[in-house]
Amino acid sequence: MKEQDEIKNKFERTIKALTLKPSLGHGTGVSKTRIINGLTCETKEGDWVFKSDMPKQVGGYDTASSPGALGRAALGSCLAIGYMMWASKLEIKIDSLEVEIQADYDDGGLFNTSDSPPGYLVIRYLVKIKSPASADEIENLLNKGDKHSPYLDVFSRAQTCIRQIELSND
Question: How far is CA 49 from CA 40, 44, 52, 67, 149, in A?
Fold first, then answer.
């Protein structure tokens, strides 16, 4: 539980800092994605580089995860991390934790062959936890994790998206 103690200490330190100076929590994440070949993309944010591609049957090279897989991974990892943070804060020992994301879709929306939206039709998430804690304690920490999960919020609530264009005709 040593790792969870460290998580709890940093969680509480962050709460204290944000309570004293809320502006510390404000920011803008910036990533830049560019096509590097066909449908293969490279995304950079800070020191991190991610690649994405599409399957061969739709014109990609199948050299990396699809954007959908990366989106599901973002949601699953955000939930798992949030649950572990709240378990640590609430001093609930976690032996193992796994989140499975299941997302139903209709590619007809992407390819304009159906009236379905191009995004997901429904998302389910299965949380598997091994812990000596009671079912009520686990339910409480999962509820707190869900309530404060940035990516569950992104997937659950419509976001304001503003497109800007910079055109070059060199």
Answer: 13, 5, 10, 14, 24
